[in-house]
Design goal:
By secondary structure, the protein is α+β, with helices and mostly antiparallel strands. The protein folds into two domains: 201 residues, Alpha-Beta Complex (Cathepsin B, Chain A); 245 residues, no CATH class. It is built from 16 helices and 18 strands. A seven-stranded antiparallel β-sheet has the order 1-8-7-6-5-11-4, sandwiched between helices. It starts with 16 loop residues before the first strand and ends in a 13-residue tail after the last helix.
């Protein structure tokens, strides 16, 4: 027997007041006059309905990220970069979220992985007065937004755990406006803040932890300008463990006498699939979108990336890494020098396939192959030429022309197609990627080195305080990601929200 479909629910009132009701409109106007609806305008501009019954967390976060104008760094559809629920798959596979939702801790992790600045609080680590203060803070500004994790039952609504952004506050009545992302079920509604607090002060049975709230704001610049760590490939678990646990133990060996030995110990045991762990943030576009030139926006981002790359290559650590990779002892299956012209076709094809994965939001897919690869230079609106790797990427019966814009590539202005033996240095070269990865390791990684002079030399090489601003922030971003991944690997994301990342 077929089951009848459900069309919305009657909003239980009290305790809630429908936003569109006469009383709801009155509360709205009074709150506007009190200046506690400033965040509403941004949120309502990007208000969306969750596309799956269990996607309330993903819908709330993508809505907030778009309201904060955070660039996702990869395309959604066509030429457009835009946060969508389908792109928020870093900390939990979408199929798992679709089946059982997402926990509060993993949503916090997702927000950080997406590039947002996040403050998260469970109710047992906060108070209702703190919550009220933060609701007021976000409601009087459009620079931060608050997402609440609560149990619907406390509001006499059907269902259990739910996420939604808070779209405003009425100070006189002490009521918060919930912009419910399940708009197919309930409309936006006002609720008394004490009742909302009680709804958050509830244990999530799947984690054994209390629910809470998170403040999401925009960092002062986009994180991960050139490098990012990936947890979309299964290899990240082993690599995170190796970097955070095994490396400090390996460096306690008595045989560690100089910098080259330190680097050798780390790289000799580095898992062979580390390339899936640290990646460079690519500028990628469909060929038909890019035409012949480079837009001012693309050129500006590439200029900053080139500066970050230059700063990496100016570090003393980079010189030691390059020396090691160039030595006879570096001939290993997973560490190759980037300057070999014989590797150009393979490297260019790999770059284009990586670009296609970013373009279509299918990172880690094994279905792409690349043909007709070439490297050329394009005009950049009167500035120096930009190096582009072009390729036709094939996936099944479909094919797509892809252009990848590369910072600081050394090439002439002519096209170098597959099979060319010309020397071209395509970014990312492993020496700069590995240098960034070493800089991101926590300071305690090196503490087991017994030679005091060597330990002092290492600390000088990896000291973040001595780095230029762009590179310093890049390393901070990688280090935050590394600690988040370690927490994921230890299943501690839902246990430790407010502990410092480093």
């Amino acid at each position: 027997m077929a089951m009848a479909g459900l069309y919305r629910r009657l909003l239980p009132s009290p305790p809630a007041i429908d936003f569109a009701s006469p009383q709801g409109k009155e509360l709205f106007m009074e709150a506007i006059h009190s200046g506690t609806m400033e965040n509403f305008y941004r949120l309502i501009s990007y208000f969306q309905t969750q596309s799956e019954p269990a996607y309330c967390g993903l819908a709330s976060l993508s809505m907030v990220l778009n309201a904060l104008a955070i660039d996702p760094g990869r395309k959604w559809k066509g030429p457009w970069r835009w946060f969508d629920e389908s792109m928020l798959d870093c900390c939990e596979p979408l199929e798992k979220v679709k089946a059982r939702g997402i926990s509060f801790g993993k949503l916090v992790c997702l927000a950080q992985c997406a590039g947002a600045k996040v403050q998260a609080f469970r109710t047992n680590h906060s108070t209702i007065n703190d919550f009220r203060k933060y609701v007021m803070e976000c409601s009087t500004s459009d620079d931060c937004h608050l997402i609440s994790s609560y149990n619907r039952a406390a509001l006499k609504q059907t269902g259990t755990g739910h996420f939604s952004p808070i779209g405003g506050y009425h100070a006189g009545k002490d009521m918060a406006l919930i912009l419910d992302v399940a708009r197919f079920k309930y409309p936006p509604h006002w609720v008394p803040l004490p009742i909302l607090w009680d709804a958050m002060d509830n244990v999530d049975e799947t984690t054994g932890q209390r629910r809470g709230f998170m403040l999401v704001s925009r960092p002062h610049r986009e994180p991960g300008l050139l490098y990012t760590l990936s947890c979309k490939h299964e290899s990240w678990i082993g690599i995170a463990k190796y970097l955070m646990e095994d490396v400090p133990l390996l460096l306690k060996s008595e045989s560690v006498k100089d910098i080259q030995k330190v680097i050798s110990i780390i790289f000799t045991s580095l898992p062979s699939n580390f390339e899936e762990f640290i990646k460079w943030v690519a500028e990628v576009r469909r060929r038909e979108d890019g035409a012949q030139g480079v837009s001012p926006e693309e050129n500006a981002r590439l200029s900053v990336k080139e500066e970050v790359l230059r700063q990496v290559q100016d570090t003393g650590l980079y010189k030691h890494v390059t020396e090691y990779l160039s030595s006879a002892n570096s001939c290993r299956r997973n560490i190759t020098t980037p300057n070999n012209g014989d590797n150009l076709p393979k490297l260019a094809a790999s770059v284009c396939c990586h670009g296609a994965e970013i373009l279509f939001g299918k990172s880690g897919s094994q279905g792409y192959c690349c043909r007709e690869t070439c490297v050329k230079c394009l005009e950049a609106n009167g500035r120096k030429p930009i190096t582009v790797v072009c390729g036709t990427v094939v996936n099944g019966n479909s094919e797509q022309g892809v252009d990848m814009l590369l910072p600081s590539s050394e090439s002439s202005s002519t096209c170098h197609c597959s099979g060319s033996k010309d020397h071209i240095w395509l970014h990312p070269a492993e020496n700069d990627v590995l240098t960034a990865l070493l800089l991101a390791l926590p300071a305690e990684t090196w503490s087991g080195i017994k030679e005091e002079k060597l330990l002092e030399e290492i600390y000088n090489l990896v000291s973040i305080e001595n780095l230029p601003t762009f590179l310093q922030e890049e390393v901070f971003h990688l280090r935050r990601q590394l600690h988040l991944l370690k927490r994921c690997q230890e299943n501690k994301v839902d246990e430790v929200l407010s502990a410092p990342l480093f």
